[in-house]
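Agenda item 2: adenosine monophosphate complex prediction
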Amino acid sequence: MKIIRSLSEMKAARAAAGGSVGFVPTMGCLHKGHMSLVELSKKNNTATIVSIFVNPTQFGPREDFAKYPRNETRDIAMMENVGVNIAFLPQAEEIYPDGFDTWVEVKGITDKLEGAARLGHFRGVTTVCSKLFNIVQPDRAYFGQKDAQQVLVIKKMVSDLNLNLEIITGQTQREPDGLAMSSRNMYLNQAERRAASVLCKALEKAAALYLSGEHHAERLKKVMAELIVAEPLANMEYISIANTSSLHELELIDSPALVSLAVRIGRTRLIDNILLAQPACV
Ligand code: AMP
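Presented output:
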């Protein structure tokens, strides 16, 4: 596996790569969720490139940029083990040099859910992804359904800007108790870790009720909220049942629906989601 830190070296390596290139952008502290995207990429491409970059512009001023978990040595070993071809670890000074002043922003769907809760977050995501796509020039880029809104936003950017790559979505990978894998799970102490399974339990409950014939979104949300309120370490931020493409909230679930939620467990903010009419999370 090649480890590349400079943009010029990355561009040269891309130009030299024959065949198709799959790209998995990450913020590191890799887990099985990231690795499942790598496996998808390896199946369909000649070479797989993984980037690790904790992107400062997608964090709000009161968010966890400084303490976001970083473990380059372990990440490099994991990437090497699964057969990643290039680990791309760009430096913030090169991605955002002095005077950097150009932003890529998707409107509309970024007003809702994570975009409403984390102002400026998606502008940071779309800006850095545009830059990474331009540098790496992948044929396909892989994103996790765990961040469902991010997938929609990236697909919209790729379509609106006629970018020349395909966006592939990988399923959410979960711990045995259903908790969606996330680098931020490292923040949880033992009691919080146990409490964190409430997100998935709430989603499962919604799926079960839906399958039993309850199609009123408010009723599903109420039952989900009751479960979360009953968990002393949990603080609910939002619960949403929205159309999967517009993200408009639904009253009656009569179109494909994304059920998503953000919950603080202690001081750690976790998100999760399911698509309705699909199997529940565990
Ligand atoms: P991150 O490092 O958190 O920015 O995530 C990098 C990529 O991995 C994003 O496309 C995420 O959606 C994806 N990802 C994160 N957690 C999971 C998971 N549990 N299952 C599948 N994909 C995931």
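Discussion summary: The beta strands are 2-4, 21-26, 47-52, 86-88, 140-144, 166-170, 234-243, 257-265, 268-275.
Owner for follow-up: CH.
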